Known about the structure:
Blueprint: H1 7-11, E1 25-29, E2 32-35, E3 41-45, E4 48-49, H2 59-67, H3 74-77, H4 81-90, H5 94-97, E5 101-105, H6 111-118, E6 122-127, H7 131-139, E7 145-149, E8 162-167, H8 177-184, E9 188-199, H9 209-216, H10 221-243, H11 249-252, H12 269-284, H13 294-304, E10 307-314, E11 317-323
Parallel strand pairs: 5-6, 5-8, 6-7, 8-9
Antiparallel strand pairs: 1-2, 2-3, 3-4, 9-11, 10-11
Helix pairs in contact: 2-7, 10-12
Amino acid sequence: MTRPETSAARHWHETLRCPRCRGGLCRLSAELLCCTACGASYPVDRGVPRFVPEDGYARSFGYQWNRHRLTRLDSFTGVPVSRDRLLAESGWRPEDLRGVRVLEAGSGAGRFTEVLCEMGALVTSVDISSAVHANAASNGRFPNLRLVQASVYDLPFEEESFEVLVCLGVVQHTPDVERAFKALFRCLRPGGRFCVDVYAAPVAYPHLRQVLRPFTRRMPPARLYALVEAVVPRLLPLARRLGRTPKARPYLTRLVPVATHDRLGLTDPATLLAWSVLDTFDWLSPRYERPQTRRRLRRWAADLGLREVAVERRRGLYVVRGVK
């Protein structure tokens, strides 16, 4: 974290739990936590407790978010893209989150972290990749933020310890989407509200990127990024022209594997190019991309006994929200 440690900040690790045995943790030093039950130890990397190998299968995400630390932040673009998306998908109002304990699973560089913190939520933000350090650099100024590097499969928190769960743009990129989806709810209290989104099947499949991904997802992130950075400026004008074609737009844009953002309110050419490079890399680089059907999502919600469940299609996503 970038802010000075207060007494409360020094001791918040006491609320963490060992992912292996759920035992409590003690702080052996500024750089090391230890489980009081099983003896497992966990490093504290630049102020962020880490419960996983440095990046694992999410190496490409760590690369992209540390490279594009500011690109998606509303405070950087001056356009409330992230705020609008969070409120639209969740159906919540800013006042609903003030003073509420929120678990943000999969933070990336912290675009939604910033919004949640500004709304006054008590945010615990988790990511499996080194993107947590990009988030810390951008949002470490917020006293209502705690950052942890961990897997959604084994979250290092007490059961039912959060009042709100937010997980956007994450679970489709895990090895086992059902396990990831269900594991999130262990930490949400009964009556707590949630919003989770996932790529929609079969909508996400008929896209040229799916032809390229078997090759691109095996490339080292730096090499793939250099290729994307070189190709996107050449193909972006064509993709944008096709995107302006009435009625046929959703079909024609799938023929060009470059992300466009003409409908988000962004106007600065450099910002639009950076978003296109970032999102195109994000399409091509993840090791896993597993869209889900509405029926499957409803079944998982039923398995968990979730209430007031709505599964809404928003462009290429299904948004699942409701109450535990």
